[in-house]
Amino acid sequence: MAFTLNFPWIEAVMLASVRMTTFLVIAPPFSTNAFPLRIKAMLGIGLALAVSPRVARGYVSPDTAGFVVGLLAELVTGALLGFLVMIVFSAIQSAGNLVDLFGGFQLAQGFDPQMMINGAQFARLYQMTALALLFASGGYQLIVGGLARSFDALPVAGQIDLAAPIHAITLAVGQMLLSAVQIAGPLIVVLFLADAGLGLLTRVAPALNAFALGFPLKIFITLALGVFVFAALPQIVAAITGQAVSVFTGVK
């Protein structure tokens, strides 16, 4: 009995698995250490097999040098797409960092090796909640589906124009900063007004030493009003998920 191997199909699947695995290693929600590296590799190969009819269509097997160049191109493509998604979702973590900074929680900052983030309580809380909402709402399926559609815009072993990803990264960084300020903005304004009120009270009655109440007052305001930001996270995660998919599917 003789078996015939379809080498162009195997090469196309290998190239697609490199892009998929690189993307899963960098992009949330799969980038956390809760997913072991071997699981990410197995998931990348499985997704590559799932999109094999799309990636193998029209693929022409190159020589050895061309295949190596194609592997490097897929590695760079997966890293760029994953980095774009990571930047977009960093808006939630940045909003938590702003809340920690203005609320007085920044002194308890630490690195979380499980979530791979560096921040205080609200930064980690918002990030964990966003990742949980991604899985609970099925948002991760939109991200994986957008990654599968990226093979239509960027075929395997195709040439990528670096000008488009760099432009998209620039826009994503600006949008991330704007989104972080929009998420945490109302609470930051309240904390700023609390500082201004304590300053005016100190000027009127210096003997009261109103700034001694600053830390407990700001912590109370942050805990009381941070619940409203926490309650708005489902809508925020849904909007950011759609934005992430539109960003990296638009890179051509």
Polypeptide structure, described:
A two-stranded antiparallel sheet has the order 1-2. Helix 6 (139-153) runs parallel beside helix 9 (233-249). The longest helix has 42 residues, at 163-204. It has 252 residues and is mainly α. It is built from nine helices and two strands, in the order H-H-H-H-E-E-H-H-H-H-H. The model has no long low-confidence stretch (mean pLDDT 78). The protein is elongated, with a radius of gyration of 23 Å. It has one domain (7-249). Helices cover 75% and strands 2% of the residues.
Topology:
Blueprint: H1 7-26, H2 37-50, H3 52-56, H4 64-103, E1 110-112, E2 117-119, H5 121-137, H6 139-153, H7 163-204, H8 214-231, H9 233-249
Antiparallel strand pairs: 1-2
Helix pairs in contact: 1-2, 1-4, 4-5, 4-7, 4-9, 5-9, 6-9, 7-8
Quick structural gist:
The chain has one domain. The chain contains nine helices and two strands. A two-stranded antiparallel ribbon has the order 1-2.
Helix count from the secondary structure assignment: 9
- Largest sheet geometry: 2 strands, antiparallel
Give the N-terminus to C-terminus distance in angstroms: 45 Å
Oligomer: single chain
What proportion of the residues form beta strands (DSSP E)?
under 5%
User: Cα-atom Rg, whole angstroms?
Assistant: 23 Å
List keywords for this structure.
252 residues, mainly alpha, two-stranded antiparallel ribbon, 9 helices, 2 strands, 2% strand, elongated
